[in-house]
Design a protein that fits this description.
It contains six helices and no strands. The chain has 200 residues and is mainly alpha-helical.
Length: 200
């Protein structure tokens, strides 16, 4: 093969790679919009600042310091257990009404996913700290997203983990409808929030 053909092939390969990259990262502020996977066991793409900006854009009156803390916890805890932090974050936003709560679960319970919230007699599980509340949320997603051959890395604190049967029954956000929540539109709501998060 001539040097000219080799050079042309190399240029074509570079252009193809750039074209692919533009499909994954395009638009958004400064052209940095990234696709958020709907797979619960894939790594999240958003960093702390992006998660916080997304949240504050939807609830400007929230305690930004708390939102930053929670974003850090969600990223670190999700990474530890191999769970998608983007999916967990938008689920927290949906379940808590952007941390406004207002239902059975109260802010002081540090329960960010409605864990165990059934009735006034069973308002949900309470955790001692924000980080432990986030950890329990991530662990519960782990039960839905992974099979029994994938163990937790942190000590189990989710009291309802063992009741997720069969394990791995909802590997994507879409499949959380009718499993995690009775709402048939639950998966679509999470998908819509992820689509909005992609713009940050």
């Amino acid at each position: 093969m001539s040097a000219r053909k080799i050079f042309s092939s190399a240029i074509a390969a570079v252009l193809l790679a750039l074209s692919f990259a533009s499909c994954v990262s395009s638009g958004g502020a400064g052209g940095k919009e990234k696709y958020c996977s709907r797979n619960l066991s894939e790594e999240g793409t958003k960093n702390e600042k992006q998660l916080v900006n997304f949240f504050m854009a939807n609830r400007p009156d929230a305690d930004k310091k708390q939102v930053k803390r929670l974003a850090r916890y969600y990223i670190s805890e999700a990474r530890m257990e191999g769970i998608n932090s983007d999916c967990a974050w938008v689920q927290m936003c949906l379940e808590t009404g952007w941390l406004s709560f207002g239902g059975l679960v109260k802010p002081e319970m540090h329960n960010y996913c409605g864990l165990g919230a059934i009735s006034a007699e069973q308002p949900g599980v309470k955790f001692e700290t924000e980080q432990l509340g986030v950890r329990a949320h991530i662990q519960h997603l782990h039960a839905y997203a992974t099979t029994e051959d994938v163990p937790l890395r942190n000590e189990l604190i989710d009291p309802r983990y063992k009741w997720v049967l069969p394990r791995g029954k909802a590997p994507t956000v879409r499949e959380l409808a009718g499993t995690w929540a009775a709402d048939p539109e639950y998966g679509k709501k999470l998908d819509g929030l992820l689509a909005r998060l992609e713009k940050f």
